From TrEMBL:
Lineage of origin: Eukaryota, Metazoa, Chordata, Craniata, Vertebrata
InterPro entries xrefs: AntifreezeII, C-type_lectin-like, C-type_lectin-like/link_sf, C-type_lectin/snaclec_domain, C-type_lectin_CS, CTDL_fold
PROSITE patterns reported in the protein's UniProt record: C_TYPE_LECTIN_1, C_TYPE_LECTIN_2
CDD domains cross-referenced by the UniProt entry: CLECT (cd00037)
Protein name: C-type lectin domain-containing protein
C-type lectin domain boundaries: 56-173
UniProt xrefs under Gene3D superfamilies: Mannose-Binding Protein A, subunit A (3.10.100.10)
Length: 177
């Protein structure tokens, strides 16, 4: 009988130890270790977000602190079966800003999935969703300094178009339904 009681306790202790070890591996600097991991990122079957991703409604978001060009950031997201994040409402935008702030304790300039590289003045999201909600800074997009969308620009923490070659952290998104 004691053996039956000890087994569940031992399993619980092992699970907690594994969870603590995973947190220690991440370090205090953020989420770089999640970048390009080989773990399964297919959440459509489980309807839960993978470890390290945060859920907002029916989508999972991940802040990637590694500074990359916009194209590199999109490719990184794609390797996790995701895209650079699209934003569809003010509440979702605030969620993403909080995600970045919690990871960095700053409002860092960060890549989103918006671009007008295919056709100038026509902005699209990398995930193919409609580009309806915007949070452009006053006078933006200027279409003179780049074709890729960064958020947390200026004191207003709004959107700006900038050269896609700039190095920025990024936010990836994937649907879970």
């Amino acid at each position: 009988m004691k053996l039956l009681t000890v087994s569940p306790l031992l399993c619980a202790m092992m699970a907690l130890t594994t969870a603590i070890d995973l947190e220690d591996e991440e370090g205090s600097g953020g989420r770089e270790e999640l970048l390009l991991t080989g773990e399964d990122h297919d959440v459509k079957t489980s309807r839960r977000c993978p470890y390290g991703w945060k859920r907002y409604r029916k989508r999972c978001f991940l802040f990637v602190s590694q500074p990359l060009s916009w194209a590199q950031a999109q490719k990184n997201c794609e390797q996790m079966n995701a895209n650079l994040a699209s934003v569809h409402c003010r509440k979702e935008h605030k969620f993403i800003r909080r995600l970045i702030f919690r990871a960095t304790r700053q409002c860092k300039l960060t890549w989103l999935g918006g671009s007008n590289a295919k056709v100038n003045y026509i902005w699209t999201w990398t995930d193919g969703t409609n580009f309806r909600y915007t949070n452009w800074c006053r006078g933006e997009p200027s279409n003179s300094y780049g074709h890729c969308l960064e958020m947390n620009f200026s004191a207003k923490k709004c959107w700006n178009d900038v050269f896609c070659s700039c190095l920025r952290p990024s936010v990836c998104v994937k649907n879970i339904w």
